[in-house]
Amino acid sequence: MKRLALIVDDDSPTRFMVANILIQLGYHVTEAGNAQEALTVLAAEGPIFDLVVTDYQMPGASGVDLIRKILAETAPSPRILLFTAMPLDLEPIKSLRAEVEGKFPVAFASKGAALKTMFASFRKITDKENS
């Protein structure tokens, strides 16, 4: 059975790159350009996604806001990767990390990482699905 991923980013070239990586990892990919679009997809589709990859900084709600909403309203919670060009030590990101640590399958990665590192981040969170 094919795994399903939702990519949320307002930058279409980033969504394209992430989609290609996830397709190589065996995912069927759905894309959303912002948090509201993602919530609309999630409301329509239900808890079918195995993985949600979201940017932090987007117009409207942030990736942190989106993650909190997903975790509060989706059971079972999908694995989530916050993938951002912003520093990972920003207070909203640090606060979310403290909230989810050990409770929810949420990982954090920098868009500034080399392609090999990004691929490793995806592999790490997707490997947890199989354990």
Please name the defining characteristics of this protein.
131 residues, alpha/beta, five-stranded parallel beta sheet, 46% helix, globular
Structure described in brief:
The protein has helices spanning about 10-25, 35-45, 65-75, 90-100, 115-130; strands at about 5-10, 25-30, 50-55, 80-85, 105-110.
Q: In total, how many beta strands?
A: 5
Order of helices and strands: EHEHEHEHEH
User: How many helices does DSSP assign?
Assistant: 5
Low-confidence segments: none
Please state roughly what percent of the residues sit in beta strands, choosing from under 5%, 5-15%, 15-25%, 25-35%, 35-45% or over 45%: 15-25%
Radius of gyration, whole Å: 13 Å
The rough form would be described as globular
**Major pleated sheet:** 5 strands, parallel
- Arrangement of strands in the largest sheet: 2-1-3-4-5
Oligomer: single chain
Task: Please identify the structural class as seen in this structure.
Answer: alpha/beta
The helicity comes to 40-55%
Please explain how this structure is put together.
- With 131 residues, the protein is of the alpha/beta class.
- The protein contains five helices and five strands.
- The protein has a five-stranded parallel beta sheet with strand order 2-1-3-4-5, sandwiched between helices.
- The longest helix has 15 residues, at 115-129.
- The two termini are 16 Å apart.
- The mean pLDDT is 85.
